[in-house]
Structure formats: C-alpha cells, structure tokens
Write a structure and sequence with these properties.
The protein is α+β, with helices and mostly antiparallel strands. The radius of gyration is 22 Å and the shape is globular.
Length: 472
C-alpha cells in the first residue's frame, strides 16, 4: 500500500448575507453528501477573519454532536468535507478541511479528486522547504496556493495562477478571510455546482441533492476550468482556464457515485440509470419472472430493465441502511464482512423464480458473488446478472478507488469465467458504446471513460502507478 491518497469525496460551502449558526447548514449539506465519503468529515467556519475548525474520523452524525456544532460557533462563511480513504491513509490527519495561516491571511480548503502530478509537485515543494503533515494531495494544493498568494494581488489571481501547475481532477472550495472561491479543473472530472436560498445565501456543493437539503435552488454547474468568487459584491466568474481542455466528467458519477435525486449538467442521475437498465434489456434479453436490483445504486437500473423488457420489477433484496458502501470500505476483509450483514433477501419475491439481478459494477467480484449466493439461498431457480457499467479494465487516477489492474477481475478473466466465478446463470455488462448516451444531458458533453477504455486525458506520472492493494 502506498502513501498517496486516492479518494472520492464530497465538498460543501456557504457564503451568507449575514452571520448566523452556519455550521448547522453545513452539517445538513454534508449529511446529504454522506454517500460520497463515510470515513471522516470536517467543518471550518469563518467569523470576522477567524477560523474555527473541527474534523475527525466517523460519520457526520457521529463527529458533529450538538455540543460540537455549538462550539464551532456562528459565522458568515463555512466549508465542509466528507471523505473516504484507502488503507493506510485513514488517519485523522488526512481529514479535511486543511487550514493554512500565513502573512496574507487564513485559508481553508476542501477538495474532491486527485492530482496526477502530485509526486512531482510534492518533491519540488519539499526541496523548497515545505514540510508536509499529511499524505493528501490536498495539502499540495494548499502549498501551491499559498506560494501563489504571496506573489499575487488577490486570492482569485492566486487561484487562477495555481491552476497552471495542477494536473488531474480537482473540485475545490477555498475559504479566505473575506471570500469563498469555488474551482473546477479544466476537464471537469468531478461535479461542482452552486445555488442560492431564499435569504440570498450562496451554497456550493458536489451535488445538487445537498442544495435541496438546505432549501437552496440550483443555479448551475461550474464550467470546466471555471473559478467562481463569492464575496460581499455577489458572485463573479473567472473563465481564463475554460475551454483549454476537453470536457470529461467522470461517467462513473452517473453509474454509481452520485445520488439518484441529484442533477448534473442538467441530467437526472435517476434517468441515466434507467437508461442503463433499458440498454441492458435491449442487449441481453432473457426469459425471466422477476427483475430485482441490488440496493441502492442498482435499483434504478432494475426498474429501467423491467420497463424495457416487460418483466415485472420486485423488491428482492433489503439493505441495512446503517452499513456503508462496500465498494469504498477500506480493506478487502472489511468489504467481505460488510456484505454478509448488508443485504437480506425477500424470499417471497425470489423463491422459485427466474431472477434478473441488476447491479452497478463488478470490481473484484467478491461482493457480487456473495449477493448471488444470497439470492440463490432464497430459492431462485435461475439468476441472470446484469451490470450497469462495462468491465473495469484500467486504474483510475482521477479520484476513484480503482488503482491497480492486479485486483480488477475483468483484467484476468473472460465474461464467461466471471459468470461462473460469481455463480450466475448468465452475465451481461453495459456495452461501452452506450456510455456517451447514458446521461442524456442537454447540449454537447463528453465524458471520462478511462477506467473502461484506458483513454486517459492527462499525463500520468510513472511514479504514480502504484499498487494500492498491496498487503490487503
């Protein structure tokens, strides 16, 4: 296992018209983004230029008790973060926000994504005297921003300059003493949107579902390369870095990460997943009695499959809502233990039936194999697995926990072999040619599909290609 941080996270920020109990608003926003990270979380509030920060390991509801929220105090600006990390990077020191104090003022930064040139930047910073306290590439961004701030006339100028050095995926919210700045990388790998509530407060978040949670109306997504400045004058857009690279929103946001009630680039996540099920029904028809989904991200695909095929949809698996996502649970043993208590079959739906079982992905095959076994034990006559993503064949360097071909089952086995390994009667993956049409967003959009086809859009440092699963 390496020291680099590979994460899928959620960010949230508020710039209010007046001072109030702003930490509670961030709390609700992070609660809505909890699906993006369940390992650690943090909130930083600015009051009259002074930052009050609390962060720790645990879920939002565990870390931010009423007493903790009260101790953070009121303010006019705040940022928050939810995170999950890989094995060996799960310490409190890697929780965000990262707060920096220097001669030009304070700065708190929250980040979703990964830098692909992190090793090069870190080495250069260390040679120039920077001392790192975390293994997070977010701290690298903080140092780059600090260096640029010391030689820039404004915080926003420093941010625009810093983007010249950062490669890879980064959706950022940065809190300074007097303003919030939201940033999306030139490709737009990770989502970032903003909205406004009835009081005129600006809300920035990874997903629109977090805006809904605090009664804010979505205004729009940030453009790839855009910098938005929120201050006492309102909101200003800086587009110096827009249009300099191909747009490449991660397609896996639509397949798995985003909540189904979110809207990204004008496209409903729920609708995208219905489309995936429809495509699977068209490409892999089968005689069956019932279609069921693996909750929660397989549910919409199952409904789509049912509608397109005419096979009835049923609730065949019940999820324990208090167990986090197995895909983002650090450590293979932990993933396997959680599957055993995460799902239970509804025997009345399944027994004696030919079942179409829809799930979102197969990464290592252990989770789906256990799920198939649960359905088989409930009395299914046949189990036909349909997956709303193509086979994972390549590592992801843009913020998803897929960093080694060694543990990707599709790299080493055929579809028929995987079908046999997981104990299914048939197996069908979403075809790659459907990926671009999956979201169904208005306008022209292009997506990052590198984990499926190996078409990376940035340079990947050779040193970055580590085996993150070593020792798991």
């Amino acid at each position: 296992m390496t020291g680099e941080l590979h994460e899928e996270c959620g960010v949230f920020g508020v710039f209010a018209t007046g001072e109030y109990d702003i930490a509670m608003t961030v709390y609700y926003g992070l609660y809505a983004l909890q699906h993006r990270g369940q390992e650690s979380c943090g909130i930083s509030v600015c009051r009259n230029g002074r930052f009050n920060t609390h962060k720790d390991l645990g879920l939002v509801s565990e870390v931010f008790t009423p007493n903790v929220l009260e101790s953070i105090g009121p303010g006019k600006m705040a940022v928050g973060h939810v995170r999950y990390g890989t094995t060996g990077n799960s310490g409190r020191e890697n929780a965000q926000p990262i707060v920096v104090s220097h001669s030009t003022g304070n700065m708190a930064i929250v980040h979703n994504g990964n830098l692909t040139n992190a090793n090069v930047l870190r080495s250069g910073l260390e040679l120039n005297g920077s001392i790192f306290h975390t293994t997070s590439d977010t701290e690298i961004i903080a140092y780059v921003l600090t260096h640029e701030r010391l030689r820039s006339s404004s915080a926003e100028e420093a941010v625009v300059k810093a983007m010249e050095y950062l490669e890879g995926a980064y959706s950022l919210i940065i809190m300074f003493d007097d303003k919030l700045i939201a940033v999306r990388d030139k490709h737009g790998f990770r989502p970032l949107c903003y909205g406004i509530n009835k009081n005129g407060d600006y809300i920035i978040a990874s997903e629109s579902c977090a805006l809904n949670a605090v009664s804010a109306e979505l205004v729009r997504e940030l453009l790839p390369g855009e910098v938005l400045v929120f201050d006492k004058s309102g909101v200003r857009s800086i587009r110096d870095n827009c249009g300099k690279a191909r747009e490449a929103m991660c397609i896996f946001e639509y397949i798995y990460f985003a909540r189904p009630d979110s809207v990204i680039d004008g496209c409903s996540i729920h609708h995208a997943r219905l489309n995936a099920g429809k495509f699977l029904a068209e490409d892999y028809p089968v005689d069956a009695d019932i279609v069921i989904g693996v909750p929660d991200s397989g549910t919409d695909g199952a409904i789509g499959y049912s509608r397109a095929s005419g096979i009835p949809y049923g609730i065949g698996l019940i999820k324990n809502k208090y167990i986090g996502r197995t895909f983002i649970s650090p450590g293979q043993k932990s993933r396997e233990d959680r599957v055993r208590i995460k799902l239970n079959a509804v025997r009345e739906t399944i027994e004696g039936k030919r079942v179409v079982l829809v799930d979102d992905s197969i990464v290592r095959s252990t989770t789906i194999a256990r799920t198939v076994a649960i359905v088989r034990e409930a009395g299914a006559k046949e189990i036909h697995v349909r997956i709303t993503a193509p086979p994972f064949l390549n590592p992801c360097y843009y913020g998803v926990d897929i960093d080694s071909r060694k543990m990707l089952v599709a790299c080493h086995h055929t579809v028929d072999e995987i079908c046999q390994m997981i104990g299914a009667d048939s197996l069908g993956y979403l075809k790659k040619e459907h990926l671009d049409e999956l979201p169904g967003c208005p306008g022209e959009h292009t997506y990052c599909t590198a984990c499926f086809d190996g078409n990376y859009l940035t340079h990947i440092d050779a040193e970055y290609k580590k085996d993150m699963f070593e020792g798991d």
